[in-house]
Amino acid sequence: MGRVDVDRGGRDGLLALAAGGLGLIAIWAVLLREDGPLPAFVGIVLVLLALALAARAHLARHRSEAAGNLAFRLMADDPAACFMTDAAGHVILRNLAAEARFGTEVRTLHDALGRHMLHPAELLLRLQGAADADGAAREDVPGHASVLRLTVHRASPEEYFWRADEMALPKDSAVLPDRPTAVAVGSDLEEVPVAIMTFGPDGVMRIANHAARELMWKGDIRAAMFHDLFEGLGRPVSEWLADVVAGRHPGGSEVLRVRGEEERFLQITLRRHVEGGRPGALAILNDATRLKTMEAQFAQSQKMQAIGQLAGGIAHDFNNLLTAISGHCDLLLLRHGREDSDFADLEQIRQNANRAASLVGQLLAFSRKQTLNPEVLDLDDVLGDLTHLLNRLMVEKVDLVLAPMGRVAGRPLGRIRADKRQVEQVLINLVVNARDAMPEGGDIRIETEPVTLAEDLQRDRATVPAGDYTVIRVVDHGVGIPDHQQRQIFEPFFTTKRVGEGTGLGLSMAYGIVKQSGGFIFVDSVVGQGTTFSLYFPVFEGPDQAPVAEVRRLATKQGEGVILLVEDEASVRAFASRALSLRGYTVLEAANAEEALAKLEDRSLHVDLFVTDVVMPGMDGPAWVRRAHLERPGVKVVFMSGYAEDGLAEDQARVPNSVFLPKPFSLNDLTNTVQGLLS
Asked: Are 507 and 535 in contact (CB under 8 A)?
C-alpha cells in the first residue's frame, strides 16, 4: 500500500508553525525594544492564527488517518487495481495490485490509465460526474482481448475510490456495450478529415475518429466488433481482419456492406497496425454507396443488354424461318381455292405462323430491335381511342377509370413521339395484368399527368434526366408483387402467373417499347395493397410528323424488270425468288454479298433492283450495295431483315433509293414493295 503527496493536515501544520514563529518573533521584538502596542498586537494575532491552524491540522490528520485506515482495509487485499484520489484526480492511496498493474511513478489517475488507452480524460470526467450525482458509477472499456471495468465510489466530498478490474473477453463475444468509451472516441487522429478506425486482432474496435463516427453513426459512437459492422466479403470479414493482423494477408481495399443496411456500402482499406506493442489493424473508410449503385446499374444494364442480344438473335433466326413457312404457305394457297380440302389446313398454318411472328415481335420489342413507326401523340387522345377495347377486356367486378390529371390541374399534357400501335399494346398489356391481379374485383385507374423534373430522378438503378415528361400510370388494388420479384418482372419469360396463363413476355415487351421510345418505366407495389406502373415519356417539342406509310397488303399486277436477290438463308431465298418470278420479274440469286458482286462484274448484265438481306456472313447488305453503286449508281434497293429498321437507319440513309422490308413478310408484302419501287 502506498501514499503519495502531502495531505492537507500536513500543509496546515506547516502553515501553523510558520505563523506561530512569526508571531513570537514580533512579540519578542516588542519586549526588547518597547516599540509600542501595534507590533505586539500583530504578534498576538499571528500566535492565535498558528494555534487555529495547528488544531485544524490535527483534525485533518485524524480524518485522513481514519479514511486511510478504512481505504487500506478495503484496498489492501483486493486483487483488482484500486486508487484513492482527490477531486482533481491526484492519487492519495493505491494498493499493491495498482502498483503492479500501472507502476509506482504515476501521480494521477489520468496518467495511470493513459498508458493503456488514448486520452481517458472524457471517461474519468463522465464517471466522476455520475458518482457525484449517484454515489457510484461503472463503465466497461474494451481493449485488446479484454475489457477494463472501471468503478468509482464517492468516499467524501473531496475523495473518490476507484477500482480497475480487467476481465477477459468471452470467445463468443459479439456485441460490446453501446455506451461511448474513451478507447472508441479519443485519438491523435481525431481531427484528421479521413474516416479512420482501429481494431484488435479479435475484432474489437479500439478507435473511431470524428470522421469515422460521422460516417458510421452520424456522430453517435457505438463500440462494436468488426464483424458486427460490416459484411459481404464472400467469407467471414473477421477472418480477413485476423489474417491482416497476423501478417498472412497484405490487406488492401474491399467494398463491404454496412450490416443492417441493404443499400449502404463502404470501401475499407485495411492495414496491419502496431500501437503500444499491441498488434491490430487500421481501417480507412470511404463511402462507396454511389459507386456500388452505379456498378449495380451497369451490371443490370449489361444483363438486360445480354438478354436483349440473345432475344434479338433468336428473333432474327425465327423470323427467317417464319418468312419461309408463311411464304411457302402463301405459294400453296395460290394453287388451292377455298373449295379445296387442303385450304383450311393451309390457313391454319398461316395463322399460327402469324401468331409465332407476333411472339417473336415481343422478343424484338424487349431487345429494342423491332421496327417502330413513330409519330407525335397526345396520350389522352390515344386513351380515348383505346377506351372501347380496354373496356371489353374487363371482367365482372373490375372497372376501368380514366383520370387525366393534367386537365384537372389546368395544365396541358405534353405531346410525345412514339409508335401509336406499340403504345396501345403496352397499355393493353398493363391493363390485362392489372385485371388478372384483382381476383376480388376493384378499379383499374389510368392516370395521365404532366410532370417537370427540376433535377435528375434516381430510382430503380436508373437515372431520369431533368426536364418535362408526360407520365401515364396504371394503378390497381390487387395482390401486389413481392419485393424480391420486382427486379425480375421485366425480364423475358418471367411470370407470376400459372403455367398456360401467360408467356412472360408482356412486361418485357412493354419495357422494350418504352425504352426504344426514349422513356422510362417503373413499378411500385405493396403485397396485398396493389401495384402502380409509371411510364415517363419525354415531351416532344418538334413539329408534327406524319407516320411512315405502311406497305399495302394488296395483290399487284404483273411486273417487269431484273432483280438481284441476295439472301444467305436458302429457304427464304427460294420463297422470295418464286414469289417474284410469279409476278413476272426476272430473278438472279446470290447466297452472299461476294457472290452478288461477282455476278455484277459482268458489265453486260442489266439489273433494275437489288433485294438483299442486311445481316449476312462476311460482307453485310449495306456494305456490298455501296460498293455496287460505284459502278451502278442508279439501282434501287430493298433491304430485308429480321431486326428493326432502326439498326439500319444510318447505313440506309447513305444508300439512295432504298426501302426497308421487315421479316417475316408475306408474298404480297414482298411483291408490293418491289412493285412500288419499280413502278
From this structure: no
Q: 614 φ, ψ to 5°? A: -85, -50
Instruction: Tell me how far apart the alpha carbons of residues 651 and 663 are, in angstroms, rounded to a whole number.
Output: 18
Segment holding 639, helix H or strand E: strand 636-641
Which segment of 9-13, 54-58, 133-137, 232-236 scores lowest on mean pLDDT?
9-13
* Model confidence at 94: pLDDT above 60: yes
Q: How long, in residues, is the chain?
A: 679
User: What's the mean pLDDT in 399-412?
Assistant: 75
Residue 231 φ then ψ, to 5°: -155, 170
Q: How many whole angstroms separate alpha carbon 204 and alpha carbon 226? A: 6
Arch. (CATH architecture) of 77-168: 2-Layer Sandwich (3.30)
CA angle 488-490-493, nearest 5°?
Answer: 85
| Strand order across the beta sheet in which 562-566 lies | 586-590, 562-566, 609-613, 636-641, 658-662
Domain ranges for the chain:
2-74, 77-168, 182-287, 292-364, 375-538, 562-678
Asked if the domains 77-168 and 182-287 are classified in one and the same CATH topology, the answer is: yes
Class for the domain spanning 562-678: alpha beta
For the domain bounded by 182-287, which CATH number is listed? 3.30.450.20
C-alpha span between 162 and 127 (Å, rounded): 10
Q: Radius of gyration of the chain from Cα atoms?
A: 45
Which range is least confidently modeled, 187-191, 195-199, 660-664? 187-191
C-alpha cell at 483: 419485393
Three-class secondary structure assignment of 68-104: HHHHHHHHCCCCCEEEEEECCCEEEEECHHHHHHHCC
Topology of the domain covering 292-364: Helix Hairpins (1.10.287)
Q: Under a CB-based contact definition with an 8 Å cutoff, are residues 286 and 340 in contact?
A: no
Q: Which residues pair with 199 in a beta bridge?
A: 205, 281
Contacts of residue 123, Cβ cutoff 8 Å, sequence gap at least 6: 113, 117, 139, 141, 150, 181, 182
Which residues in 230-275 belong to E strands, given as ranges? Answer: 230-231, 252-258, 265-275
Residues 375-538: name the CATH superfamily: Histidine kinase-like ATPase, C-terminal domain (3.30.565.10)
Q: Which residue carries 389546368 as its cell?
A: 410
Give me the residue label for grid cell 432475344: 311
* CB contact set of 499 (below 8 Å; sequence gap of 6+): none
Which pLDDT tens digit goes with each residue over 259-273? Answer: 877 778 898 999 998
Q: What is the mean pLDDT of the chain?
A: 77
> Is 598 a residue whose pLDDT tops 90?
yes
User: How far is 67 from 505, CA to CA, in rounded Å?
Assistant: 87
Determine the 3-state secondary structure of 109 from DSSP. Answer: helix
C-alpha to C-alpha distance for 107 and 87, rounded to whole angstroms: 13
Read off the C-alpha cell for 279: 498488434
| Interatomic CA distance for residues 84 and 376, integer angstroms | 88
pTM (2 decimals)?
A: 0.43
